[in-house]
């Protein structure tokens, strides 16, 4: 299945010179969405995943479906102040400044095997922050899964030697 056929390019969004990769046509297609989830789940079927970690908002869409498919729990990573319990946090760099992700401090335990998922791997900052959240609990990251990887931004370099599955590559 050619999943790239479900991705719509939006030129000059959110600013001039950027070509935004719109995933909503894939999400709206039962075949496209199922194909993406099934392909990622098959790639990690042998990894013993106990939890799937996804950041808001699109990471929730893929993360919840993958957790269900893999028989695992889902752990949301959110912007500061959005979770009602004691949290742990990881800060990461943006093009101009920094941002932070939080998760509940008791969401993962040392025995957990975690799949980190998101829609796009760009510079790798958000994925690395999620990996830091996992590492802080003593749990083990089994790998990363992305619908789209923007290869020209080199984000995978920030993720070390982890297993990375990206379904669509953009040069």
Number of strands: 9
Helix share bin: 25-40%
Category by helix and strand content? alpha/beta
Determine the mean pLDDT.
96
Question: Architecture, CATH level 2?
Answer: 3-Layer(aba) Sandwich
Task: Summarize the structure in words.
This protein has helices at residues 24-28, 30-43, 58-70, 125-137, and strands at residues 8-11, 19-22, 51-55, 73-77, 87-94, 97-104, 113-121, 140-150, 164-170. The chain has a single domain, classed as Rossmann fold (3-Layer(aba) Sandwich). It contains four helices and nine strands. β5 (87-94) and β6 form a beta hairpin. The chain has 171 residues and is an alpha/beta fold. α2 (30-43) crosses α3.
Keywords, separated by commas or semicolons:
36% strand, 171 residues, 4 helices, Rossmann fold, two-stranded antiparallel sheet, 9 strands, alpha/beta, 5-stranded parallel β-sheet
In short:
The protein is an alpha/beta fold and 171 residues long.
Topology:
Blueprint: E1 8-11, E2 19-22, H1 24-28, H2 30-43, E3 51-55, H3 58-70, E4 73-77, E5 87-94, E6 97-104, E7 113-121, H4 125-137, E8 140-150, E9 164-170
Parallel strand pairs: 3-4, 3-7, 7-8, 8-9
Antiparallel strand pairs: 1-2, 5-6
